[in-house]
Amino acid sequence: MNDIDAWVWWLVGAAALGIPLVVTAMPEFGMFAVGAVAAAIAASVGGGAVVQVLTFVIVSVALIAVVRPIAARHRTQRPQLATGVDALKGRQAVVLERVDGSGGRIKLAGEVWSARSLDTGHAYEVGQEVDVVEIEGATAIVM
């Protein structure tokens, strides 16, 4: 055991930290693994035990402090390109059959959709333009 250099132990530690990264999908383990690789580099150039540990701690903490907030911000952002029914929200449509609180038909994005008025007391007549507020199943909610 004494014949193995310190940098090898740091690489073993980095590999060991990579296992829970893959299993749990927690990116913090990956950041610790990168810190262990940095400590292995410090050990390979002759840094003592204190330098190795400080390198591991500084690199790991710096990655967590910088990368984690960026990753969290990207995770909470909505995609730039709306697809599916999300792309239809906010679009305009033309009334084909009278639309009120109980139903009707509109032409939306070149397709005929069933529609319902958002305000149940308000009706839209044939030819009128309406805005799509929401899509519920196969029914467009308009106003």
TrEMBL record:
InterPro entries: Membrane_assoc_protease, NA-bd_OB-fold, NfeD-like_C. Keywords: Membrane, Transmembrane, Transmembrane helix. The keyword Nucleotidyltransferase does not apply. It is a multi-pass membrane protein. The chain crosses the membrane at residues 6-23, 53-71. SUPFAM superfamilies: NfeD domain-like. It comes from the Bacteria. It is found in: Membrane. Pfam families: NfeD. Its main location: membrane. The keyword Coiled coil does not apply. Residues 85-142 form the NfeD-like C-terminal domain. Gene3D superfamilies: Nucleic acid-binding proteins (2.40.50.140). Signal peptide: none annotated. This is NfeD family protein. It comes from Streptomyces cellulosae. The lineage of its organism: Bacteria, Bacillati, Actinomycetota, Actinomycetes, Kitasatosporales.
